[in-house]
């Protein structure tokens, strides 16, 4: 631990504390706030400073209300305990620090329990524009303000319940090959719908289309592009289209879906679970995202208690 303290930094990809946690199998961790370097705080300050005018122009009103409710410090990486002190009384949600990637079932099960797995590292100053993996700015400034809205928070809980249904449905299939095939299809459907709503969703607002997805709300370049570019196709959100639409993560999204409201989003997650039980998610279109063996295993291991 002395060696970790000596190289104080929680920079994504260069954080001895995180490497030590992973080496020892610690998925859920504390936030060692003293390890943030001044460069880490400067990265947060620059990210927040340049996103603020973008949010005011393109973010939906629920997100803007959430940013105000959380009282985020624009100059310092937030303490997660402070975020939770403002968040929990509003919707029961809390940010839960993790050491990195969390298997899909565990992620959705956290949502079911009103916990949001939160990365504690932050990108370095050379990669402010794009980072392929989540960091604390994406998670806290991009996701968590939406968790202050009751309807949105309840939708996340329904997503978590869908994961339990997928594990349950997989447990009924005796043939191992068929069980894996159907489970893969169900997880593709869930991942795609989550991507096109929670991560890269648009929503109709009083002043036109606004961003509601966290991938957009934490991206300096893509937020404006998603709302303003004539190159982006924007269509009303339809469950059957979203679950069969592949996506790639390494470029601006060429196709986005527009929800009417959080009530519509909640009702579509309800329908997603109903279709899962009816077998209508057993044969979704092939393509991205790939479902990893670790994610599949997390659902199979959960199946007996689903």
Molecular structure report:
- The protein has 306 residues and is of the alpha/beta class.
- The protein has a single domain, classed as Aromatic amino acid hydroxylase (Phenylalanine Hydroxylase), CATH 1.10.800.10.
- It is built from 14 helices and six strands.
- It has helices at residues 2-6, 16-23, 38-58, 61-70, 80-91, 104-112, 136-143, 150-171, 176-199, 214-217, 220-228, 239-242, 262-278, 293-302; strands at residues 94-98, 115-119, 202-205, 208-211, 233-236, 255-259.
- The strands form two sheets. Strands 4-3-6-5 form a four-stranded mixed sheet. A two-stranded parallel sheet has the order 1-2.
- Helix 3 packs parallel to helix 11 (220-228), helix 8 packs antiparallel against helix 9 (176-199) and helix 8 (150-171) packs across helix 14.
- The longest helix has 24 residues, at 176-199.
- The number of domains: 1
Largest sheet: 4 strands, mixed
How do the SSEs run, as a string of H and E?
Answer: HHHHHEHEHHHEEHHEHEHH
Mean pLDDT: 94
Q: Specify the CATH class.
A: Mainly Alpha
Q: Per CATH, which architecture?
A: Orthogonal Bundle
The CATH superfamily title? Aromatic amino acid hydroxylase
**Which regions are unreliable across 5 or more consecutive residues at pLDDT < 50?**
1-6
As for the CATH topology, it is Phenylalanine Hydroxylase
The rough form would be described as globular
Strand order of the largest sheet: 4-3-6-5
Strand elements, count: 6
Query: What is the helix content?
Result: 40-55%
| Helix segment tally | 14
Estimate what percentage of residues fall within beta strands.
Answer: 5-15%
What class would the helix/strand composition place it in? alpha/beta
């Amino acid at each position: 631990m002395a060696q970790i303290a000596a190289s104080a930094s929680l920079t994504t990809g260069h954080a001895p504390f995180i490497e030590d946690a992973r080496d020892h199998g610690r998925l859920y961790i504390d936030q060692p706030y003293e390890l943030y370097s001044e460069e880490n705080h400067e990265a947060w300050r620059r990210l927040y400073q340049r996103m603020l005018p973008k949010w005011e122009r393109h973010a939906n009103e629920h997100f803007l209300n959430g940013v105000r409710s959380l009282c985020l410090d624009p100059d310092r990486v937030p303490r997660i305990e402070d975020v939770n002190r403002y968040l929990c009384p509003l919707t029961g949600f809390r940010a839960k620090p993790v050491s990195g990637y969390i298997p899909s079932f565990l992620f959705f099960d956290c949502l079911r329990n009103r916990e949001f797995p939160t990365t504690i590292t932050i990108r370095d100053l050379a990669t402010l524009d794009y980072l392929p993996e989540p960091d604390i700015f994406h998670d806290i400034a991009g996701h968590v303000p939406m968790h202050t809205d009751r309807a949105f928070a309840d939708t996340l809980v329904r997503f978590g319940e869908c994961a339990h249904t997928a594990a349950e449905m997989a447990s009924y299939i005796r043939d191992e090959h068929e069980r894996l095939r159907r489970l893969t299809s169900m997880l593709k459907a869930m991942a795609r719908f989550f991507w096109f709503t929670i991560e890269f969703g648009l929503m109709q607002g009083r002043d036109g289309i606004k961003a509601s997805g966290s991938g957009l709300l934490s991206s300096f370049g893509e937020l404006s592009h998603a709302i303003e570019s004539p190159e982006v196709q924007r269509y009303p959100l339809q469950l059957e289209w979203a679950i069969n639409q592949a996506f790639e993560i390494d470029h601006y999204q060429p196709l986005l879906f527009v929800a009417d409201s959080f009530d519509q989003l909640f009702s579509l997650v309800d329908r997603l679970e109903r279709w899962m039980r009816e077998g209508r998610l057993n044969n979704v279109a092939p393509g991205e995202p790939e479902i990893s063996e670790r994610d599949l295993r997390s659902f199979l291991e959960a199946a007996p208690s689903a």
